[in-house]
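Figure 2 data, in text form.
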Amino acid sequence: NKNFTSAVQLIEKKDSQKCLKFLIAQSSNFLKSKEFKKLDSVLTIADGISLYSKDTFSIANIMFMHALSNNIQGNVAEAESLTLRSQQLFEKIKNKYQTIKTNRVDRAVFMDKGLSDVSLNYYQKAIDVATELDLPHEIAILSFNLGNVYLDLNNFDQAKSSFLKSVELSKNSSFKIPKLELEFSLANIELEQDHWETALERYQNCIQL
């Protein structure tokens, strides 16, 4: 489309980065509100501008937005493919923070496919990166979610350890622990380990939350 190419060239001459930043922000809003037609339109424009400007970060970021959209809409295979491709690009430009985000989607995809053991590897990798970058907020979130994976794998000791680590880290971060979910998960762990009194106490705590 000649008109589209001309528009891309015009935007690129003015300031493609500002334009891409605006489009990505808009796509985030449409993703949250699940307005997928508008999201697709915005991402199509962003695709053209990022490819024309040959900005690897923007290409990877927009590809990741496509992955998120596909994952929410249930297109798991496409989401997995796009996430892995965007992750490779982020790793290529050594953007470790963004690889944490792509790992989150990878983990969600594998959890949806019933592959908790595979998801576990992605969580551990993301925690290693977050630790290296000294991001306690991210580690708190990851540790909480890791607890759910261990719970799914019936590894109750590791699940409890991950949940409690998340609680400790959240004290110095902006991450707010979902208290009811936490207490209910810990109650289930205590029950599975035959700690009846502690389990009952935690279940009673759930009623009060």
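Caption note: DSSP finds ten helices and no strands in the chain.
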